[in-house]
Amino acid sequence: MKFAAFADRAGEIEAEASDLEIVDHVTSLLADANDDLELVARFVQGRVFPAWDSTTLDVGPRTCYEAIARAAGTNVSADDVEERLAAVGEIGEVAASYDFGGQQGLGAFTEGGGGDALSVREVYETLVDLAEADGSGSQDRKVDLLFGLFNRCSSEEARYLARLVLSEMRIGVGEGAVRDAVAAAFDVPEDRVERALQVSNDYGRVAVVAREEGLEGLDAMDLELGRPVRAMLAQAGTVADALEEWDETAVEWKYDGARIQLHHDPDGETRVFSRNMEDVTDALPEVVEFAADRLVDPVILDGEVVAIDDTGDPLPFQEVLRRFRRKHDVAKAREDVTVRPVFFDCLHVAGEDLLEAPLTERHARLESLLADGEGLSTLWLTDDPDEIEAIDADALEGGHEGIMLKNPDATYSPGRRGKNWLKRKPDVETLDCVVTGAEWGEGRRATYLGTFELSVRDGETFETVGKVATGITDETLADLTELLEPHVLTQDGQEVDLEPAVVFEVGYEEIQASPTYSAGYALRFPRFLGVRHDKEPADADTLERVRSLYEG
């Protein structure tokens, strides 16, 4: 498929307001994708790689601006592109406003330039090369590769290429739309497509299997060791909610750690993945050693990694993060912060998938794997609220966050945040908010970003709910400034607009209705609790949750 044809179809989809019509458009697009079906099924969602693959393009906005500027002509600079973005507000519109195709620089020849029509596969292969660029000179290489693509683009192609590169496709196509379109395009049941997506976490592969092998092929798809799936998620709830909904409640301690998914093959590799399916194996050798010492079967386990002190007591979540993303000097980091895994679910053992088994059966399998109890999260079954309160008190006294309440009969639903898992925390609620703006400080803090604009998700956009500036030390402000500066989009005086990239955990006393912020609500007395390095903006809390908390 020519990339121009994909861009035209993307434009038609973006112009459509009806969800049903969007699915119809995506259905038609997939049906016409031919040999590029796998790529088109990802591109239409703004993805280059499968959802389970942690490979990233690692292209910041500035790199994209430089490539656009070079392709636009000698009189255009990256600053010009950034200024136009500040006026227009959307990178696709900015890219489409330039007349590309006439710049015959080095990149035009070496990266396939010269005016011939781009194909979807050429775009993909170039983006793969871009993702693999590393080391000295890699940023120049990335600019050259992107320039080579933009130099061959029409306005509409440039619009969607820029969005794809910066993960800002935003044409109204979510995962549900692609799922329904796959079912419609290749005449297979939606629920079987859903199951195949849960075990594979790869929309492109599922689309191809649905077309080539139909229902039989979809049903044959299983979990694979080394290919992570999305974690099942919890929503906030109460003991009363759980006891009203279920005859019995499964209760677990809620650990103040970072979510991990262990893939262990005793005859092959052991890999550890984060909540966002990033490979963190090298940063957590203790987890690999734990698996080698105690697990004799091939397994996929769900759990948390917790930082502990010399006596084995848990340390705060921020200590875990000192280890979680460590890529260098892991041995030294291990000396400074010790971690241990705690597992609470079993997704696969010895060739058998357990996603559709009830929680009690999955936990029983986990108990048989960890017979000595080391690394095993205890599961209590009860219908007694007093017993649940006692378990909660023990968890808090032990330094943990509180308790989890789970439906004992629930299956494991990757990526789903539903009522089958409820998280109960102490009285003070928290929100995970995306940082979308900031202000430079004054006086001794003039070199630090010191006030941070907080937003929550509303579909594909972000709406503000307040600003936080309290509870942050100078040392932390320095770290936050270093973290956020690469994501600055525009600056006006002391105020900066930030690319939605960093998630803060924020505590607050209450939520009030407020016309001051675009969400219509404001956090009263917000305070910074930490950076959620294990979460992406897509994982942040939603406006719907804020509304629910306010109404509740």
UniProtKB/TrEMBL annotation:
One of its GO terms (biological process) is DNA recombination. GO terms for molecular function: ATP binding; DNA ligase (ATP) activity; metal ion binding. InterPro entries: ATP-dep_DNA_ligase, DNA_ligae_ATP-dep_bac/arc, DNA_ligase_ATP-dep, DNA_ligase_ATP-dep_C, DNA_ligase_ATP-dep_cent, DNA_ligase_ATP-dep_CS, DNA_ligase_ATP-dep_N, DNA_ligase_N_sf. The keyword Metal-binding applies. Its EC number is 6.5.1.1. The keyword Ribonucleoprotein does not apply. Keywords: ATP-binding, Cell cycle, Cell division, DNA damage, DNA recombination, DNA repair, DNA replication, Ligase, Magnesium, Metal-binding, Nucleotide-binding. Its cofactor is Mg(2+). HAMAP family: DNA_ligase. This is DNA ligase. It comes from Natribaculum luteum. The lineage of its organism: Archaea, Methanobacteriati, Methanobacteriota, Stenosarchaea group, Halobacteria. The gene is ligA.
